[in-house]
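Our platform keeps sequence and structure together, in a single record for each protein. This encoding replaces a full spatial description with a residue-level series of whole-number codes. We quote a single record here, exactly as it is kept in our systems:
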Amino acid sequence: MYKLKSSAEFLSEIKNLSETLKDIKISSIEVDREKNSVVYNFICEKYVPEDLRQKIAEVVSENTAPIFSEVSVNVKKIVADEKLIDVEIYKFLKENYPSIAIFLTEKDVSCESKDGLVKYTLRLSSDGAEYVRKNGAMKNLNEYLSKKFCAEFVGATDLKPEILSVNLLSDDVYQSQLRRIEYRTIKVSGVMPIDDENMGDVAIYIEDIEDGEITVSGTITDIEERETKNGKPFFIIRIDDTTGRTGGVYFSKKATYPKIKELKVGDDIIARGNYGDYNGRKSLTIDKINRCVFPKDFVKKTKYKNPVPAEYRMVFPEKAENISVKSVFDVEEKLPEELVSKVYVVFDLETTGIERSENGITEIGAVKIVNGEIAEQFNVLVKPEYPISEENANLTGITPEMVADCPKIEDVLPDFIKFTDGAILVAHNASFDMGYIKKYAAESDYEIKNAVIDTLDLSRRYLPELNKHDLGTVAERFKIVFRHHRALSDAYATAEAFIELMKIKWKNGE
């Protein structure tokens, strides 16, 4: 995507055209590579007449690279109305941070605007407020709002009243594994109030629970009455909703004690409480319980996954280079049907190290094989979240300075997923590269369903005479050009080795 060399000066020049444009902002820039056209979308708090729009278009054209044959401008009037901002804040959090929004109502969002600065407040539990601060949600929200409205935004959190909790959990309390929250719910029936007739009949999957206020439902698998040191009765209750199990402490009240005492294993309940760390453990402090009927025909829904992107946004594939000294395609021989009837993407990664838990991706290189020929290439440097060691920099040639201004993996992964859509993935020692790809895909809510072929396995099977089966040795066996330890070069070498190995497989009648 084309970027302005000095966007601040460019925008300042437009603002100087008229007092009407003092609050104008660029909301987005759309580039059409095929048509060599670019569209600048502006937002402004005041209406911009046609003659002023024409002046904006002239400034834009003068500051746009000459490679674009068509330049156009859109200006939309957007006023930072406080009620509208509240709605947009709630909508953004609901769509992008369900683990926050599931416990946030529109009434928990408020804002006030003065002199172009909008201050908004999110009313959250202490866990929710900590989550917002730690994961950068507020920063991303501010950026979104600044593009949406003609104002600057500052956010803060306000704590809701805390739920009663004590550190009385025994080692017996069941801990369900914490998972990324998804907005999947179970609707129960026949709710019979014990604590709260307004609790409702909708609970989230136990599999999806995350720190904060939650409502869960399920069948009681164990219930035990105990007493605190002060003689106050409480119950340890465990439930199962078929997606997972969780357990927690419920402090009985005088009015509800007899009804809680009647609960037994096999009864269905819906419970609301706070899930978090107590005494270094994860568990649920239950605030309210109602009886209910858990659906007998309940079928677990598949977790939502992002669809394959409709278009490339940052990394655009290019026509494959002719880099081979000896090309497998120069040989006039029939290629295996398996090779020409399917699409393959051969890829390689460069990383900061081997262990995925403490390392990140620094480069992705991939080539697409269509009709038995290398047709397209995909290559991008990535700014990792982990430091590049001197050893790795010497090995790959990728230094911290080279990737300092490069996109992060979450920004380029959607383009890689689009590039690989519908293709069979191929890599040398595929478990290593696929491990990294699946890790980051899961973090961005993408699901990798592609079939995978490992050229290391093919080499071991069809080249048993080799002492080693690393990519360099296999490439040398087929006289393939090999410039090791850069992702795109490795991807080309792997692709050519893959084609040669597929030919051997075909000649063996397999």
